[in-house]
Amino acid sequence: MSFLRILSSRLAPSPILSYLASAGPLHRLLATSAAPKADQQTQDTIWNPVDSATRQVSEKITHVASKGAEKTPANLWKEQSEYTRLQLADMERITNDPYIGRSAKVVDGDLADAFKRLDMILARNKVRKQLKLAERHEKKGPKRRRLESERWRRLFAHEVRKNVQLVTKIRRRGA
């Protein structure tokens, strides 16, 4: 059992976190620390990848510590390659779901910061705009005109930014 599993079992679940854990895409974000006590099989399903990753990292650390005398470039390359391969394999197994790009980790129990980061991610990915546009059907012609207008505005804003940077650069030179 990994230290992460022990730590999360020590956290006291609150009603707010339990509600948030069951709501929408945030269920994966908060499920491990906020969900009410689940049966042992469900907890094992959730925590087995984390346990194996923690075990592999600790084994790798002890392996590297025991081989401290053999620090040839070939050995270092081989060790680092193996460590990276193990990390990537575990990351794929743990984070392979459709909500990974729309989630933020809760660090030290700071939910407010996690929600701010999640809000920034959603704004950057324009999720709310897509949801609003998907509420109603948009005909082919108006959609084409809207996309063309958005493209033109983006290009125009880019050109204005370039010109402002050029003027700022010239002014800095003293002209």
Automatic annotation (TrEMBL):
One of its GO terms (cellular component) is mitochondrial small ribosomal subunit. GO terms for biological process: mitochondrial translational initiation. One of its GO terms (molecular function) is structural constituent of ribosome. It holds the Pfam family Ribosomal_S21. Keywords: Ribonucleoprotein, Ribosomal protein. The keyword Protease does not apply. Belongs to the bacterial ribosomal protein bS21 family. This is Uncharacterized protein.
